[in-house]
Amino acid sequence: MKLAINGGSPVRNKLFPAYSTIGKEEKSAVEKVLDSGKLSQYIGGWGDKFNGGPQVQALESEWSEYFGVKHAIAVNSCTSGLYCAVGAVGIEPGEEVIVSPYTMSASAVAPLIYNAIPVFADVEEEYFCLDPDSVERRITSRTRAIIIVDIFGQPYNVEKINAIAKKYNISVIEDAAQAPGACYKNRYAGTLGDVGVYSLNYHKHIHCGEGGVVVTNDDALAERVRLIRNHAEAVVENKGCADIANMIGYNFRMTEIEAAISRCQLKKLRTLLDKRQENCAYLNEKLAEIPAISVPAVRQNCEHSYYVQPFKFDEAIAGISRDCFVEAVKAELMPTELREDEGVKISCGYVKPLYLLPLFQRKIAYGNKGFPFAELEFSDNISYNKGLCPVAERMYEKELFISELMHSFMSKSDMDDVVKAFMKVWENRTEIKKSMCFFSKSTIQKL
Ligand SMILES: *Cc1c(COP(=O)(O)O)cnc(C)c1O
User: Fold this and answer.
1) What confidence tens digit (pLDDT) does each residue in 217-264 have?
2) Residue 361 in domain
3) Does residue 201 have its Cβ closer than 6 Å to ligand 1?
């Protein structure tokens, strides 16, 4: 059977179904807001409009009830929420925050907004969240917080990370953008640290276009998040706040339209997740039959929400590189409806470890003179060199690939095409010419 990448006929000729969660509920909710004429009701001063209008406030109370957390604070993105969280924990300029290199960039650059310094620890070989041992090795007297990410939808190692945070008296900021509905024991991801942040952007499980929610059980933290969201500097005096550290506010306010959409979306989360988990279980079982593919485990006591489905690939067993193998699989398949321009929704490596971005490589953040890195006597202790986080680098370079062809609207027969494509490429892998393939250097040494 000739592979599609060599001109053979592909396994699939039609698009995969769209992941579209917007329906008549959202449309009518938006229409009501439009008809009211009040598209946002915030005022950037202390008073009854400081916390926004009825849709925002209803979303916040429904969100806190759903996730079992005292405070939920709606913002205009998860990125904004991370900025609020870093400011609210009372970070000082020059303090250090331990972050993951293997995540969306905002979760690692958030400390820089307050002139604090991101310090990268490595990720776990099996789960890809921050590795507690690596985290502990990076802690110094200047460490103030850890931003931990429930990457791909898998909750972090709560027991170990929270114990480290307690031991060194540092805050845990949980980035649960990819993990709404994931659980550790009977608690939801997002509520496992001191403060958590969710995303409601278009690419996430549930969305309102752009949006985010911050959650915490800590009253004082919640109050500071609300202030940073909405022009803190103009509010603290009339509100009677004594502690004004980091109380320069932003406008991170969510509109009534997005809040109305988000309320409808939250009601759909559980059903969407059930289907996604069922689909992932099916694909995990089938693709694990390929000797070069391994299916990452779900952490003990955890429920995975599968923002994307990660797989590991062993080049040495396959005799071809991950990148070649995945290219050949993609040639057998088709894009997804509504996202045709994004190609087949399987991709290699996830993200380049973030310390390799120009921001860290050149240590140029604010202005052109190296601030804040160069200001610090201890900047020599902080490395952003290649080799810093070997597990993240290896996952990026040759082991990990992720698939979105398991979303809630994929049917069994859609997934069977995915499985067929993988099997076809596996069985005919010798057809893939070695000369076409890019091998990572370490694999060439092994072969
Ligand atoms: C999507 C995402 C963000 C950013 O979310 P926005 O709402 O787009 O700002 C942050 N962290 C992680 C892990 C994400 O996946």
Assistant:
1) 999 999 999 999 999 999 999 999 999 999 999 999 999 999 999 999
2) no
3) yes
Angle at 140 between CA 139 and CA 143, to 5 degrees: 75
pTM for the structure as a whole: 0.96
Q: Please answer whether residues 173 and 84 qualify as being in contact, where contact means their C-beta atoms are separated by less than 8 angstroms.
A: no
Q: Residue 196's pLDDT is what? A: 98
Pair 120, 386: CB distance under 8 Å: no
pLDDT at 437: 62
Single residue among 267, 299, 315 that ends a domain in this structure? 267
Instruction: Check pocket membership of 103 for ligand 1, CB cut-off 6 A.
Output: yes
Q: Whose CA is nearest to atom 2 of ligand 1?
A: 177
**Confidence band of 439 (pLDDT split at 50, 70, 90):** low
Closest atom of ligand 1 relative to the 106 alpha carbon: 10
Distance 152 CA to ligand 1 centre (A): 11
DSSP code for 123: B
- For residue 403, the surrounding DSSP H or E stretch is strand 400-403
Q: What is the DSSP letter of 299?
A: P
Is residue 80 within 8 A of residue 88, CB to CB? The reply is no
Q: Is residue 175 within 6 Å of ligand 1 at its C-beta?
A: yes
Cα–Cα distance for residue pair 278/165, rounded to 1 Å: 34
Q: Is the sign of the CA dihedral 387, 389, 393, 394 positive or negative?
A: positive
Q: CATH number of the domain at 403, please.
A: 3.90.1150.10
> Is residue 137 within 8 Å of residue 158, measured between CB atoms?
no
For ligand 1, say whether the CB of 77 is within 6 Å of any of its atoms: yes
User: Is the shortest distance between the CB of 79 and ligand 1 below 6 Å?
Assistant: yes
Report the C-alpha gap between 261 and 265 in whole angstroms. Answer: 6
Q: Which helix (H) or strand (E) holds 309?
A: strand 309-313
Q: Is the pLDDT confidence value at 434 over 90?
A: no
Domain span at residue 331 reads 4-18+270-351+392-446
